[in-house]
Design goal:
It is built from eight helices and no strands. The chain is mostly helical and 188 residues long.
Length: 188
C-alpha cells in the first residue's frame, strides 16, 4: 500500500489530519497534469494550473470525501474534476451573457485532441458533449479520452492509471479516435 493509498483510506475513515498529509504528496503530480492540460488551451486562458489544481483538490477532499480504493483511482477522480472545471469555465465563457452560444462541432478535428493544438471553448464543449454519449456505452474509452485529451497525459501514463498494457491503450485510442471522428463529422 502506497502512502497516498494509506492517506486516502484515512481520509475515508474521517481522519482530518490525513487531508493535510495528502496535498504535499500529490500536489506536484496534480500540478503537472494541470499544466499539461492548460498548455493546450487557447491564449488568454484565465485559469492557471495552480488554480485548477486547488479547485480540483477542494472538490476531491471537500465536505464529503470519496471512497478511493487506490492512488490510480484518486488520479482518475482528479482528471474528472479537472475536466469538469474546464468545461464549466468554457461554458461560462460561452454563456449568452458573455456573447452567445456555441456551434455544436465547429472546427473540432480529431487530430487536435491529443496534439499540441489549442482547443477553444466551443471545441471543448463539443468534445464534452460527444464524451457524455460515449460514457453511456463504454467507461474505459471515456476514461482514456479524459486522461489523454482533457488532462494531456501521454498514452503510457494513461495505461498505468487504467491498469492495462500500453498496447491495449493504443488499441483503445485508435478506436476512440475513429469513434470521435465519426461523431464529430457525423459520418454515421
Amino acid at each position: 500500500m502506497t502512502d497516498v493509498t494509506r492517506i486516502l483510506s484515512a481520509i475515508e475513515r474521517g481522519d482530518a489530519k490525513a487531508t493535510d498529509e495528502l496535498l504535499p504528496l500529490v500536489y506536484e503530480e496534480l500540478r503537472i497534469l494541470a499544466a499539461q492540460k492548460l498548455f493546450h488551451e487557447p491564449p488568454g486562458q484565465t485559469l492557471q494550473a495552480t488554480a485548477l489544481v486547488h479547485e480540483a483538490y477542494l472538490r476531491l477532499v471537500g465536505d464529503e470525501p470519496q471512497g478511493w480504493n487506490s492512488r490510480n483511482h484518486f488520479f482518475m477522480a482528479a482528471a474528472e474534476a479537472m475536466r469538469r472545471i474546464l468545461i464549466e469555465n468554457a461554458r461560462r465563457k460561452k454563456s449568452l451573457k458573455s456573447g452567445g452560444g456555441y456551434n455544436k462541432m465547429a472546427g473540432l478535428e480529431v487530430a487536435d485532441l491529443s496534439g499540441g493544438t489549442e482547443i477553444g471553448p466551443d471545441e471543448l464543449l463539443a468534445l464534452n458533449e460527444v464524451l457524455e454519449h460515449l460514457a453511456a456505452e463504454d467507461h474505459t474509452l471515456t476514461d482514456l479520452i479524459k486522461l489523454h485529451c482533457f488532462v494531456g497525459l501521454p498514452l503510457p501514463q494513461v495505461a498505468e492509471i487504467l491498469g492495462v498494457s500500453s498496447r491495449t491503450v493504443e488499441r483503445h485510442w485508435a478506436f476512440a479516435r475513429a469513434w470521435l471522428h465519426r461523431e464529430i463529422r457525423g459520418d454515421g
